[in-house]
Amino acid sequence: MNSNTVPTKSSKKTLLKIVPFVLLIGLIAAIIGFKGYVIVEPGNRGIVVQLGAVQPYVLNEGLHFKLPFVQDIIPIEVRVQKVQSDEITSSKDLQVVNTVIAVNYRLNPENVNKLYQEVGLDYKDRVVDPAIGESLKAVTAQYTAEELISKRSEVSYNVKETLGKKLSTYYMILDEINITEFKFSPEFNQAIEEKQIAEQQALKANLDLQRVQVEAKQKIEQAKAEAESLTLQKDAVTPELVELRKVEAQLEAIKKWDGKLPSVTGNSAVPFLNIDQYLKQ
Are 184 and 88 in contact (CB under 8 A)? Predict the structure, then answer.
């Protein structure tokens, strides 16, 4: 048989079936060999940089293809991140305040490419830390040292509002802040303690004064009542009432008499009664 024989139709069909599989295998091998794919891990997004230019889209979690030697995929975390900072600020009355603040924030997943383009991956050092310090200084300067303690929830709210606006400028979302501690100088702490003691003593003295005033008022009212009672009793004593009381006393003496005449007479003896007077009645 001649080696230059033209292929039959059946052989052409077989070749047409094999070629796509060969190309597919070759393509897969090229993708693997030249790393033409990327997997974005959970809690991350992929920033696409093509020939040095940040692309206007972001890759979500999962498997994605890329152009070898043309595109680079930079992963960036979008989970909640926590940073704790020690800051030194001043109050409205020029007291030095040492503050410990914890901040929970995260990157806006839809705009991480813009953050990377404008700030880079060191956004914590370049944006977050300075924003925390600036926000604390701006808010604590509006309150006296005592108000920072007594209005702590209000101070926290204002710090959160101020810091949230600063972070949103750089495509970050502030979730929560927690001011864990306000520290003042030993002299200020002592002054606060002495003031609290003085206030407690003043409160006790005021309560004692109120108690004395109430007791004095009660005594006055009681004295008035007794005086009014005596006045009423005095007004109620009439000659008829005096005679009636005498008669009652004599009748009481009769009940107690044993029928014997007293052997002694005088001022201390029981007075003789006019029995006939009562028998006639």
Answer: no
Alpha helices in 97-238 (DSSP H): 112-118, 123, 129-140, 145-150, 152-168, 186-236
Residue 273 has pLDDT above 70, yes or no: no
Cβ-contact 47, 76 below 8 angstroms: yes
Query: Residues 6 or more apart from 101 whose CB is under 8 A from it?
Result: 84, 85, 87, 132, 136, 159, 177, 178, 179, 180
CB 137 within 8 A of CB 202: no
Beta-carbon contacts of residue 87 (< 8 Å; ≥ 6 apart): 98, 99, 100, 101, 132, 133, 136, 137
Token pair recorded at residue 209: 């004064």
Task: Classify domain 81-189 by CATH architecture.
Answer: 2-Layer Sandwich (3.30)
Write the CB contacts of 110 (distance below 8 Å, at least 6 apart in sequence). Answer: 58
Query: Three-state SS for 57?
Result: strand
Domain extent listing, the chain: 25-77, 81-189, 222-257+272-281
Spatial separation of the C-alpha atoms in residues 97 and 142, rounded to whole Å: 13
Tokens matching residue 163: 């810091």
Report the alpha-carbon distance of residue 45 to residue 57 in Å, rounded.
Answer: 10
Strands in 81-90's sheet, in edge-to-edge order, are 81-90, 96-107, 172-183
Give the pLDDT confidence of 213-241 residue by residue, as tens digits: 787 788 888 878 777 776 766 666 667 66
| Max CA separation in the chain (angstroms) | 185
In the predicted structure, residue 205 carries a pLDDT above the cut 90:
no
One-letter identity of residue 7:
P
Nearest to 105 by CA among 178, 163, 176: 176
